[in-house]
């Protein structure tokens, strides 16, 4: 039986939000150098309650309600990391990470390289991202490609409570800086989390549904969309394989190559604008690695190449089950 | 006995170090939070009890405010509060995705808004529905942002009121650049068409790099910009002492321009101080920082639950300083308004609310094509193709192809 559904004594049903909270708590209990910092993360426990209760239990010196400045949050975290702490920064919404872009690109990503490896920057930047929550501007974007493009940082995204619980702890233990993208619209999805299971490695993608007709590759919020699409496709007699990429930098595409060699069809699904993106990178790598296995070009189902639209039309902007299945049909009919 | 003022006004060489970032219990008991005290330097013309107090420096800026004008300010505040409450209710009823209440900040916004001349330019953050009102933006036009039909729905050039800015602090630099442009084009001086810019931001925003850079740029280029900080004591769950040891208005000194703290719940004082600051700017003595000392009476937004982080005592203390009530008391006591006037305003407010409501219920959703329009002034063939393909894809559903 797969560990994601295993029910043992250490197993509890958790939402993704609560799973990240429990993962943070476990990491803080294990290592006194782990500290949490960000806007409203302390007394209030974060706008999504991901850090709920941590300040109460670990104190104000380990859970910091910082001044309102993202460059400040990340820039001081670099100094703390160099000093021996393992900071976990929260950026309240992905749209507000950009004041910190300079620190992320210039220091977080490069300090190790610049110092010939003499300095490490073991920090985590947690970023709720993605749309579908009916929010105002800057609360629904998917900027992960911008960060995956920066050599020197690692970028991951969880898609379910089990991964969320383990991946946040693994990211904190990682000696490299990790950007941790959390699909905010999936915070309330529930699953059984076994806290004594052996976790799957952090920088590895995995097949989450087996199939032979075509392959879907996705990450974060779109994994559920793809699983729903795969379920619906069985009505047409299609068995879609779904791969949760989990790690966006470095990409782990071996499971994708292996799958495409069997199915001959690949659809990459992401909410982010599709041009010059992680989805494009996957298409490029797959056509080089699996050229003779492909029976159709790699298709992308992504957000459009526009700013995130007003929320009343976001359902049209975001890839959904129908757009995914339409792409599968086009691929199969090629 | 040392006082909160001493802790927060560190004079060179004197007094204990400011420790607002980590107040001791003794300091807290002595009122370091000072949540309902603006301190000795607070400019106030109308007390919370509705008493007009003389101010030799600022009276001249409101000497034209007679009974009629004061009734006008009262009406403004009642109407924007009513529209605000209706916005809140519409969100609760599922008509809006979110609402950002201005409750408690009516005087700070109407005082500043009514000090502006038509030729002045305004850069709001996202809570400035009262300033919008003064710039001729109808409450209806604000709904689009919060209903999610458009990001922004008024003409910024026509109203000289920039779109709301949600990314904290961004607009402070944009406003400073606009003001530099006013200066470069010779619109600063003693001519009647001299211009100034006013930019709105919160206490939390004062920590952002953009805001500091705005202060630096404005000082270096003598930009005619009034930095109007509404210190409503909270940045979501974080009290102002998480952002500063020093009262915010005192920061201006470090950048080389004047800073002033005004009672943000006193519409007359806000009007006077704003008029003074705008005049300074128009005549070439800008920039100026105003800290309007006020209180966020409601949640941060409709998504927020303030009981998680603040005590209701604080709210109760601030209720006694209500910006509208003090004007009402003053109008009655000084015989400047009869009951009939208050009834009329109430009626008008109810009508405004019901119109706003009706408007909201009838707002159409934008078509899917809106996603692709106005991304570039010069168009982009890639997007045109994406749009055409998408429209064709949607048409497939109508034909029952899917
Ligand atoms: C750059 C950025 N970071 C974080 C946020 C999330 N956020 C929205 S409002 C707010 C608090 C702002 O407080 P303040 O400046 O005092 O303004 P107020 O809301 O009290 O009017 C925060 C942290 C944001 N909008 N932009
Ligand atoms: Mg505030």
What secondary-structure arrangement, pairings included, does this model have?
The complex is a heterodimer of chains A (about 325) and B (about 400).
Chain A: E1 11-15, H1 16-30, E2 34-38, H2 54-58, E3 63-65, H3 70-82, E4 86-90, H4 101-108, H5 111-114, E5 124-129, H6 144-148, E6 154-157, H7 161-173, E7 178-183, E8 190-194, E9 206-209, E10 214-218, H8 222-233, E11 240-244, E12 247-249, H9 254-263, E13 266-273, H10 278-289, E14 299-303, H11 314-317, H12 321-332
Parallel strand pairs in A: 2-3, 2-4, 4-5, 5-7, 6-7, 10-11, 10-13, 13-14
Antiparallel strand pairs in A: 1-8, 6-12, 9-11
Helix pairs in contact in A: 1-7, 3-4, 8-12
Chain B: H1 4-8, H2 25-29, H3 67-92, H4 106-115, E1 121-123, H5 129-134, H6 139-147, H7 156-159, H8 170-184, E2 197-202, H9 209-220, E3 225-231, E4 234-235, E5 238-239, H10 251-255, E6 259-263, H11 267-282, E7 288-293, H12 312-319, H13 323-333, H14 339-361, H15 381-398
Task: Write a structural description.
- The complex is a heterodimer of chains A (334) and B (402).
- By secondary structure, chain A is α/β, with parallel strands linked by helices.
- Chain A has helices at 16-30, 54-58, 70-82, 101-108, 111-114, 144-148, 161-173, 222-233, 254-263, 278-289, 314-317, 321-332; strands at residues 11-15, 34-38, 63-65, 86-90, 124-129, 154-157, 178-183, 190-194, 206-209, 214-218, 240-244, 247-249, 266-273, 299-303.
- In chain A, the strands form three sheets. Chain A has a seven-stranded mixed β-sheet, sandwiched between helices.
- In chain A, helix 8 crosses helix 12 (321-332).
- Chain A is globular.
- The mean pLDDT of chain A is 97.
- By secondary structure, chain B is an alpha/beta fold.
- Chain B contains 15 helices and seven strands.
- The interface between A and B is large, with 39 and 47 residues.
- The structure holds thiamine diphosphate and magnesium ion (MG).
- Thiamine diphosphate (TPP) sits between chains B (127, 166-168, 202-205, 232, 234-236, 296, 300) and A (39, 68, 70, 92, 96, 99).
